[in-house]
SbsA Ig-like domain-containing protein
Amino acid sequence: MIIVDFIKRHKVISIIAFLVLIGLLVLIVRLGALKITDVSPKNGSKDVLTSTGINVFFNREIKESEKAQISVDISPQEDLSFLFSKNQLKIVPKNPLKIATNYSLDVKVNNRKIFGFSFETRLFTQEQISKEGLLQSRDDLAFGEAYKKFISDFPWYLSLPIEKSAYRIVYDFEKKSFRIRFKIQVSDTAENNLIKQALEDLKKIGVPEPISYYTIAAE
């Protein structure tokens, strides 16, 4: 009986040891498997440059023997080249990416997908943006110079409109005159007094005499 019990216990210990060993082997395999920890551009990114580089970062350094096992599918289809550096895979499109396009990428190891991500390119190429930016800068500069000259010729313009309880004054460039619009119904005598007051307001902001103007009655 003692011998039988010893054999049974020995078998149990052997089985337990075997299971522990299997578990350790599985753990080692899992820890050693390539996993993706980060990507660039980030999944779901918008407004990505068409000249952008695509980077995939793994949980450990990529072995030389593993490089041939790694592949990347991209949709829409693009010609890609791959550069490995330690734990990084740099995916370089051979041509600029298409504008305003949603790209999806699947990273595979031994033809098995281990990660997927997508991003959307911007509406314009970097060249177009630079060109438009230059044109905009030129337009801004031209506008700035014209605006400076305008303010130099009409320094009082920044003080318009003049708002009073009885009237409002603006400048009519088509008629080259100031427009005095009455806000209230007034008699002829009161209207003349308000016009005199309005002209004094214009003198105060630097409008030279003689002052050209016309009036509009209140509705």
Summary: Helices lie at 2-32, 64-67, 126-153, 188-204. The longest strand covers residues 112-121. The chain has four helices and twelve strands. Confidence is low (pLDDT under 50) at residues 24-31.
